[in-house]
Amino acid sequence: MTTVSAKQAATSLFEGPYYLSIAGKLVDATASFDVMNPATGQVLAKAPSGSPQQLDDAVAAAKSAFKTWSALSYDEREHYLVAYADALQAHRDELAVLLTLEQGKPLKTMAEPEVDQAISWIRQIAARRIPVEVLEDNDSHTVELHHTPLGVVGAITPWNFPVLLALWKVAPALLTGNTMVIKPSPFTPLTTLRFGQIAQSVLPAGVLSVVSGGNELGPQMTAHPDIAKISFTGSTETGKHVIRSAAGTVKRLTLEMGGNDAAIVLPDADWKSVIPQLFWGAIGNSGQWCVGIKRLYVHRSHHEAFVSAFVEYAGQQKLGDGLDPEVTVGPVQNKMQFDKVREFLDDIKANGQRIVLGGEVDENRAGYFIPVTVVDNPPEDSKIVQEEQFGPIVPIIVYDDVDDVIERANDSPYGLGGSVWGRDTRAAVAVANRLETGMVWVNEMHTQGVDIPFGGHKQSGVGTEGGHEGRLLFTNPKTILIKK
Ligand code: NAD
């Protein structure tokens, strides 16, 4: 395994060139776009801007490859996926540094674990199967339920976890016999282009292609007649465009979208011991995660002590370039998001809400740095409570009554995740049962696994990723009825 030092990382190693992967080949594009390093605000590299024709070529190659790929056995596809995981493992260090460079997240605590989890995910999913089910078998007939692959899957991914969220889609799609074209976020295309490149040395041509470019490639994919399914992760707003556009060809859809997750710290919680988990649940990845704690509800009986302990812990963190091993909180990923998060800060200040940590952006600092900011008890109807901040700001909100806080937590168009914290586990689970979300963690945070469905309710999602349920969504149910 090659070890890449931070110093090397800053040099030409990651400047490129980067290529599209189409039909098993590395392909240049006639145009390119700048990819920024969010820690410096400087251009990191140029990424190829795929043309509409190149996207069509990738889809055509995927359609052609589907014929042979879908005819392989599960065991044969497992073999390919394990070989892909091995090839990625050989480039693990390089991918992690590149992820930090383009995304901003701290190398040791965020980027390396993201790459490791993604590789492990492929290995584990490779071993899963969707067997044929015999629904009826009697003297007169047999009924079998098969799960057949859909065809070409289009993956559209965001910039917060570009490696993990893309490979979460690749592994189950390919395992179940589909082929795939990935369009990464224009903010973070580089790691995806690299793992697309690595795939070409291991997988048959056309099975996995990567086409980077502008947002306009998204609608081309969602309307494409030869794409059978769109697996999308991104904002709810964009997800609505995907739904509209996909209607024309009745595509299958899995949509993983925005959230405004509540954490409820119950009156009996051992709250002191869970402050680190709550902090990282909110501020990890600089608050840029769909299932991040975006509203932290604390019972009035321990409000003041909680806020001061939370602020003390938060104050120990170091903001900076993710390549610096001492840094625990990186920059916000891009200028657009930086500006959005600043709007939250402006709104908090304009409305006289109480900032107990952070709140001031250093105007002279290069890069997109927002300090960890804690807002003490903003009103329930404030922007920071009602909307998805997707940045390192956490509101700590006081409640008096458990029924009331459940109602407040549920009073949202989103329904992605949430967490409940309390000593009496049964009581905490009872609260979890009442939250209208796809996932609720009780006394733990962000545990995930290949057999655990991950998805949102309400406007946070359609379908699920992960779990047998998620894998089924890459297939069509097909019933075969046989007269004896
Ligand atoms: P985004 O919606 O702006 O972009 C997501 C992807 O959609 C990008 O690849 C983009 O190029 C593409 N796109 C843009 N316009 C499109 C269109 N009209 N048609 C098709 N594709 C189009 O989201 P983002 O800013 O990259 O990511 C942040 C959002 O993603 C947050 O809301 C976050 O909560 C959400 N998210 C959800 C999950 C989840 O699993 N539920 C995970 C991560 C992020």
From TrEMBL:
What stretches pass through the bilayer? none
Domain Aldehyde dehydrogenase: where?
31-480
Do you know which InterPro entries this protein is assigned to? Ald_DH/histidinol_DH (IPR016161), Ald_DH_C (IPR016163), Ald_DH_CS_GLU (IPR029510), Ald_DH_N (IPR016162), Aldehyde_DH_dom (IPR015590), LUC3-like (IPR044086)
Among SUPFAM superfamilies, the record links this protein to: ALDH-like
Supply the alphabetized keyword list: Oxidoreductase
Family, according to the entry, reads as follows: Belongs to the aldehyde dehydrogenase family.
UniProt protein name: Acyl-CoA reductase
**Source organism:** Pseudomonas abietaniphila
Q: What is the lineage of its organism?
A: Bacteria, Pseudomonadati, Pseudomonadota, Gammaproteobacteria, Pseudomonadales
